[in-house]
Amino acid sequence: MTVRTPEVPSRAVTPSGLNHLVLNVRDLEESHRFWTEILGFRQVGELHATAERPNPPKMRFYSGERDGPPHHHDIALVENTELPEPPEKWSMFGGANAINHIAITLPDREAWLAQLAFMQDKGVKFGRRVDHGMTHSPDQHLEDLLKLDRFHVSAFARLLERMDTIEEANGTTLLDNTMFTLGAGMGDGTTHQYNDLPLVVAGGGGGTMKLGKHVHCKTGTPLANLWLTQLQSLGVERESYADSTGTLTEILA
């Protein structure tokens, strides 16, 4: 795979707007109530402990209403109990800065690559190599990203193969009676676009799923349609889920 190196633009690429804002807050619960009960934002996520990060900061993500699928988040709050006390008299100017970071949105992938080339030409260093960061500069980390993808897909395949060897009482296998989904919530990590999501649905779901086919959903189909389809296949009586608009009948047996 050949990656084209973008030409360095003569000036910075103008963003299409802010993507999200992260704020440091002294009391997460108090701020949560303010942003949800007073300002009306919806909580759409929260950091949880993982094997790689057993003690994550207290952090929650919030989104406003948008046309189409919900945004990953507009605002995020991170608890920092060491923040200085607020001033007795509030003023728009001269106060302490509680911004954790700001993310901007560029019009498309090409604009981001051009802006990246511009910043690097100006001496801005991008030395931190983490999964998240590499997906925002795939042209520079293609081989490493491919290694990560191969690792995750191989682990997924090993799990399926193992489950396919475990026989159930009725002559089927554990895989026949299970549903597994491998994929991503974003089609392009560079621009945070959630179109054309690559997904693999494995397992027979107790005979409810149609196997061995490729389905290309029409543009604009919400990912929630898949979750609703799987819920109904498992016997959960739901008419809708999140921003679903229907079910994916193409994958039903």
Written overview of the protein:
This protein has 253 residues and is of the alpha+beta class. Helix content is 25%, strand content 15%. It has 2 domains: 89 residues, 2,3-Dihydroxybiphenyl 1,2-Dioxygenase, domain 1 (Roll), CATH 3.10.180.10; 109 residues, no CATH class. The longest helix has 23 residues. The two termini are 37 Å apart.
User: Could you give the count of β-strands?
Assistant: 7
How are helices and strands ordered from N to C? EHEEEEHHHEEH
Strand content: 15-25%
Overall residue-averaged pLDDT value: 84
Give the biggest beta sheet.
Answer: 5 strands, mixed
Distance between the termini: 37 Å
Query: What is the overall silhouette?
Result: globular
Instruction: Work out the count of structural domains.
Output: 2
What strand order characterises the main sheet? 2-3-4-1-5
Which stretches are low in confidence, meaning pLDDT under 50 for 5 or more residues running? none
In short:
This protein is α+β, with helices and mostly antiparallel strands and 253 residues long. The chain has helices at 28-38, 109-121, 131-135, 142-164, 224-233; strands at residues 17-25, 42-46, 59-63, 75-79, 99-105, 180-183, 199-202.
Task: Kindly list the characteristics that best describe this protein.
253 residues, alpha+beta, 2,3-Dihydroxybiphenyl 1,2-Dioxygenase, domain 1, 2 domains, 5-stranded mixed β-sheet, 5 helices, 7 strands, 25% helix, globular
